[in-house]
Write a structure and sequence with these properties.
Layout (H helix, E strand, L loop, with lengths): L14 E5 L5 H13 L3 E3 L11 H7 L4 E8 L3 E8 L5 E10 L13 E7 L7 H14 L6 E12 L2 E11 L4 E4 L3 E10 L7 E4 L6 H32 L6 H7 L1
Parallel strand pairs: 1-2, 1-3, 6-7
Antiparallel strand pairs: 3-4, 4-5, 5-10, 7-8, 8-9, 8-10, 10-11
Length: 255
C-alpha cells in the first residue's frame, strides 16, 4: 500500500480542486466554497470526458501532488475523489446533503486563516478509516505559514457517513462556536491503490448506489399505483352490484 506522506508539509505541496464538465450549480458552488476555505489549494480548469486515469497527467503538468475532483453522474449523483499523486491512494465518496455558503450561516472567518481539524474516534477503528483520515488531513490541513486559527473543521463518522461541519471559534475559553458552512456528507464508496487507477483495496459493503435507490423508488411507486387502480376498479364493480331500493320520487322526474 502506498504511503501518504502527510506527516510534514513542505512548500512544494500543491493541491488542485477542480470539477468535471456537466456538473450542477450546487456542486460548482461547493468547489468554490472549498477553494475559499483552503488557501493552500489551487483551482484548475474543468476536466472533460476523458478517462479519470489521465488526471494523473494533469497533476504532473501542474506540479501538484494531490487533488480534489468533483464529478456528477447521471445528472444527479455528485461524487468527490481525493487522490495523492503519483503513487496514490485514491478515495471515492458520494456527496450527500450539500448546503453551500449561500445559505448564509451565522458564523464567519477571515480569508486565509488556518482551521483546527477535529475527527471523531471512529476514524481510528479500522485501517480503511485511518487511510481516509490521513487523506482528509492532507487536503484540509492548512500550512503553518497562513494566519492563526479561527475556525474548526469537524469530521464525524455517523451512520457509515462522514459529516463535515465548519465552525467559527467565538470564544476559546468558553468554547463558544458558531457554524460557518458549508456542510455536506461523504458516503465512502471505495479506495484505489493508485492515482485514479489500480487495485481496489477497500470497498464499502454498506454502500448502495443511488441508481438502485432510484429503481427501488420507481418500482414501489409503480406497485402503489397498480394497487390504487385495482382498488378503484374493484370499488366500481362492487358499486354496480349493490342493491338499490326503488325510489318513487325518481319516477316523477323521469315521467
Amino acid at each position: 500500500m502506498a504511503e501518504l506522506g502527510v506527516e510534514k508539509k513542505s512548500k512544494k505541496d500543491k493541491t488542485l480542486i477542480f470539477c468535471q464538465t456537466g456538473i450542477s450549480s450546487i456542486v460548482r458552488q461547493l468547489s468554490r466554497d472549498l477553494l475559499c476555505l483552503l488557501p493552500h489549494c489551487r483551482p484548475e480548469a474543468k476536466y472533460g470526458r476523458e478517462p479519470l486515469a489521465d488526471i494523473s497527467e494533469v497533476l504532473d503538468l501542474r506540479n501538484a501532488n494531490r487533488c480534489v475532483f468533483l464529478q456528477l453522474k447521471k445528472h444527479r449523483d455528485p461524487y468527490m475523489w481525493i487522490s495523492n499523486s503519483p503513487n496514490g491512494p485514491t478515495a471515492k465518496f458520494l456527496i450527500e446533503n450539500i448546503e453551500t455558503l449561500d445559505r448564509n450561516f451565522g458564523g464567519n472567518c477571515r480569508i486565509g486563516t488556518r482551521a483546527i481539524l477535529s475527527f471523531s474516534q471512529d476514524f481510528d477503528r479500522d485501517p480503511p478509516m485511518k487511510i481516509i483520515k490521513r487523506m482528509l488531513i492532507s487536503v484540509f490541513r492548512t500550512p503553518s505559514e497562513s494566519r492563526p486559527f479561527d475556525h474548526i473543521f469537524c469530521f464525524d463518522f455517523v451512520d457509515n457517513r462522514i459529516w463535515f461541519r465548519n465552525y467559527q471559534i467565538i470564544n476559546h475559553e468558553s468554547q463558544e462556536f458558531r457554524e460557518i458552512g458549508p456542510r455536506f456528507t461523504l458516503n465512502p464508496v471505495s479506495i484505489f491503490e493508485g492515482t485514479f487507477r489500480g487495485q481496489i483495496i477497500y470497498k464499502n459493503p454498506d454502500y448502495v448506489a443511488p441508481s438502485k435507490h432510484f429503481k427501488t423508488a420507481v418500482k414501489q411507486a409503480t406497485i402503489k399505483n397498480k394497487k390504487r387502480m385495482e382498488r378503484r376498479t374493484f370499488n366500481k364493480e362492487k358499486a354496480e352490484t349493490l342493491f338499490r331500493p326503488h325510489d318513487d320520487i325518481n319516477d316523477v322526474f323521469n315521467s
